[in-house]
Amino acid sequence: MFKLFWHQFKAGPWWRFFVMLPFVGAFFLDITESSLVALTLPVIAAVIWYLVFLPDGDVAQAFGLTRQQARRMFLFGAMPAVLLTAVPALIMRHDAVGVLGAGLGILTVVSFFEHALPNGEPKARNGRGTGFCVWGNSLTLSLFWARPLLWAAGAGALVGLLYPLGRYMGNETVRELIAAVPVIVLWFALFQEAGLLPATARSLGLTRKAWARQVVLVSLGVSAVFGLVAGSISLLIDAPLTPILATTAITAFVCLASHALMPSSEFFAMVVPFIFFFPTRLMLDVVNPSAIAEEGVPVLGLASVILAIALLCMALYVTGRVSLAPRSERFSAVLGAD
């Protein structure tokens, strides 16, 4: 398995290693005095390390590996990614914030590698494969809707419960992050959802218009479920509803924009959730209701520009004027152009 891991590791674009340099430098420039930086930097670094050690998340499917085989191969990348994420975080902060930051980084690494495991796997030599689970005999429901709806309901429940608890927390950083972390986890779960990827739709013979239609519907449906669950719980606890509604709208935008950009650039599609995480965490500060008024106009302006660009990219892809970016030009490239 190590030979296969080493093969895909070497096949990826070498320039991806330079992306990590700013984050490596950040750990040693002593800028982690801020609790917010100490908590978010390991998470961001974990995502980059994941992309460095596993430049193509589809490698397991491409080689027909079972989940057990893929897990053994991924360990060669996950172990150094965990060490390179957690150790610097603990070196820079020796307190509870450093431990929490390292823990969040480790959780991010494990989540991304676990998500890259194949779902519809072939039969193993000495056992049965898991196969592809179809809900209610509906491929559309299973492929596009099943897991995103579960993620949305779970994240909505966590936000609905954690957001009102912020009023009992004196630390501003913890108060802002406590409800925002489930949101960004939801965003990246949707971003990595295999059923929403344009390459998946193409491999199943779905038209580009069908893929675009499902992306729009899932973005709206998932955000609606998230807002309904989070808002209902918040109302029961008598918490302000406006931040939940704002987060719901941002969730719909992030899901739609990131997937609309994906055919042209996976890297810029991945940047979208990071951009809107910071204003979202400020809006979810239950003690500071004025944050929505302060952040609303800049967020709306930036979102409008990004959404216009994203929809233009999607329109060009749907009409056939552009194709999926060659694998050699994609951020997660590994095996050369299609």
Give your account of this protein's structure.
The chain has 338 residues and is an all-alpha fold. It has two domains: 2-115, no CATH class; 139-329, no CATH class. It is 70% helix and 0% strand. It is built from 13 helices and no strands. The chain has helices spanning 2-11, 21-28, 35-53, 59-62, 67-92, 96-115, 139-165, 172-191, 198-203, 208-236, 242-261, 266-283, 291-318. Helix 5 packs antiparallel against helix 6 and helix 12 packs antiparallel against helix 13.
Main sheet record: none
Helix content: 55-70%
Beta-strand residue fraction: under 5%
The number of domains:
2
Rg, Å, rounded:
20 Å
**SSE order, one letter for each helix or strand:** HHHHHHHHHHHHH
Annotation, overall tally of beta strands: 0
| Number of DSSP helical runs | 13
Quote the distance from N terminus to C terminus: 25 Å
State the gist of this model:
The protein has helices at about 1-10, 20-30, 35-55, 60, 65-90, 95-115, 140-165, 170-190, 200-205, 210-235, 240-260, 265-285, 290-320. The chain is an all-alpha fold and about 350 residues long.
Task: Walk me through the topology.
Layout: H1 2-11, H2 21-28, H3 35-53, H4 59-62, H5 67-92, H6 96-115, H7 139-165, H8 172-191, H9 198-203, H10 208-236, H11 242-261, H12 266-283, H13 291-318
